[in-house]
Write a structure and sequence with these properties.
CATH superfamily of the largest domain: Galactose-binding domain-like
CATH architecture of the largest domain: Sandwich
CATH topology of the largest domain: Jelly Rolls
Distance between the termini: 49 Å
Helix content: under 10%
CATH class of the largest domain: Mainly Beta
Structural class: mainly beta
Order of helices and strands: EEEEEEEEEEEEEHEEEEEEEEEE
Largest sheet: 7 strands, antiparallel
Shape: globular
Length: 363
Amino acid sequence: MALTTLPTAAFSEGSMENFRNIIINGDMSIAQRSTSVASISSTSAYYTVDRYKLHLDTTGSWTQSQETDVPTGQGFATSLKMDCTTANASLSAGSFLLFQQLFEGQNLQYLKKGTANAIPLTLSFWVKSNKTGTYIVELDDNDNSRNINKSYTINVANTWEKKTITFAGDTTGAFDNNNGDSFRIMFWLGAGTNFTSGTLQTTWGTQTNANRAVGQVNIADSTSNDWYITGVQLEAGTTASDFEFLPVDVNLGRCLRYYFDTGSAVNGGSALGGGFWFKAFNANEAAGYNAFPTPMRTVPTIVCSDSAGATGKLHRAAVGNVGVNVNFGNISRTGLLACNETGVFNTTNPNLYIGRIKANAEL
């Protein structure tokens, strides 16, 4: 039987035929933390859809949510929505509102950044808002303090529109080859004059704040404003390909490298957690190895809660369903080994402690 010869184009220099999308969870389908969080006003954090961080300061108050409002006939089931609930029509100079994703440098070496062969990047996404006008997208090289910014326009209110933007390759400054925060993509939604008073930096260069968001509309100026996004794809080259849909288990696995919540609906958990347990062997210590579903990016920060939702506790399934205070030890990228707290564990009635575990290794 003759062997089939694959097209050489599939393996061209710098190409990524599989997992070509640098963005993780571009279809907004995984949301371990929550599907809706209200009253977001000042704390930059991950709130709902996995891998997307909201970065903001004095730009009103917001509800962020995972939604089923999507562009028709494109294969998407979910989107992310930003809904303004408290307006700020007069931003201070230092105000900003950014929707962003951060990336490890070791995953981006094939882009050849910092060499004469640096590869351009093409971004495509679907977006909808009642607020028409100019919006800014920024690529940020965090290792070398360099950035490039491009604009797009929402032309028709409350209508899904597909946007495609190509960014040149950067021949200056290589990404670090490690698991640190090397690269970021930022969708600007609001910016004060500290970020809008210069000239938009449409070529790679040293980051200057005044040039980062020139022309950006202020979506925080009315409680009638909202902004939806889905189908985000960033890939090597100058052409946008069709969105790369991944099986849900693959997409979830990529997210679990950064955050794991045993109690989230997406992981099939419950208020008591998804199978994490510890057996007390004296009044001060309990042990039992609990593996994470995939090795995490780095040793994670652990937060636990008992069946009543009290943080810093594990649940004891009898004697009044008592929640006991615990600290964790022997944490690694792959799991937990033990927990301890002076004089609280019951070694006989019962000797099993379970709880909801949140492991955070986000960039």
